[in-house]
Structure formats: structure tokens, C-alpha cells
What we know:
This protein has about 220 residues and is of the alpha/beta class. The protein has helices at about 40-50, 70-75, 90-95, 110-120, 140-150, 170-180, 195-200, and strands spanning about 5-15, 15-25, 30-35, 55-60, 65, 80, 155-160, 185-190, 200-205, 210-215. The chain contains seven helices and ten strands.
Amino acid sequence: xxxxxxxxxxxxxNNKDLLRDISCSFLTGNLYCIxxxxxxxxxxxxxxxxSLVPYTGLAKLDNMSINKIKPELLRIKLHYLHxxxxxxxxxxxxxxxxxxxxxxxxxxxxxxxxxxxxxxELGLDEGYMEKRIDGLSGGEKQKICLxxxxxxxxxxxxxxxxxxxxxxxxxDKVIKFLLSRKQDMGIVIATHSPQIIGIADEKLSLSxxxxxxxx
Length: 215
């Protein structure tokens, strides 16, 4: 089991308090939901967890300050999925394979069968492997980004609005997909989706940069 802790975290940028004295813990095997109005600090909190914004306070992964973990190693352990995924202008297959070409992932082997299986679980058939990424919808790109991260088996998956571009049926597929994977990792989702909020093991509400635990 892995644990991600933050204690007394505050973020102030451009003379504005984005997060104020936040403390909480995340464990693998659970799905967490962070919700709140736009501008409440949801994305900022995800970025703190993977050390992408300056902050005061303490953030630790398995009792080690995340600031003391090499960035490239931290990116292996914690995957942050942006609202707008980044891709190369190639096929879906090439984009799924891309992270395996990075030096930090040299010990990992790309398995096309696993890639296709993940796509199918998300409602995308085998033919998507040959489709160009620039011809896909925003929702399809979200699914492909999710499959790509799962192939690398992170300890924690941090996701910003994973179903924002999806219809209800596609959102249901993504939710079932995430629930089936949570035993292998910790999943932390920033969302407005009532469906995701409803299935979370723990709900965290953000308002004006302050965090509340919701039962």
C-alpha cells in the first residue's frame, strides 16, 4: 500500500490565495473525489500533489517529501491527466507507445494486446490503433490518455475532469473502468460530475481554497 499525504498546504500566486492550510491523505486502493465550483482550487490541489506549483506546507509520498524525489521518478509514481491531453500528431497506437520510448521507462515493455484491451473497455475498438489522433473528438482523446496512463501502472492517478467531454453512456464506461482499476492504485479525481462524486470512497469539497471532508 502506498500513501500520499499533504499537511498544512497553502498556495499563493499573483497575490491570490488558491489553497489555504489544506491537510489530507490518499491511499492506494481507493477512489477520491475533489469537487467544488470553478476556481475553488481543484486543479491547483492536483498540481500540488505532483509538485507542479510552488506551495508552503508538506507533501509526502510514502513518508518522503515529494520535493526530494527526482521529478522523472515522481512522474512514474504519480500520473497527472490534464483536462487537455498532450499528444503527438500520429496514430493512436503511436501515442500509446510513446511513453515507453522515454529513458525513464526503459524497463517497461509496450504490449499491444493490453493497449487494445484497454481501448475496448473504454468503448473504443481495435481499429482506433490506426486512427490519427488529430481526427478524434475531445472525449475520445480523454479515453486514450486514460488508457495510456494505465499501461504504465502508476501508484497514483490524478485526473482533472476525466468525463468533461463525454456523453452519459461514455461517462458510465469510464467510471466502471476506473472502479475496476482502483485496487491497483490510488485514484484522485477533480470533477463536477455527480456520477463520479456518487461512487467515490471519499469525497473532498473545496470552497475558496479551503478543504472539507464530506461523509
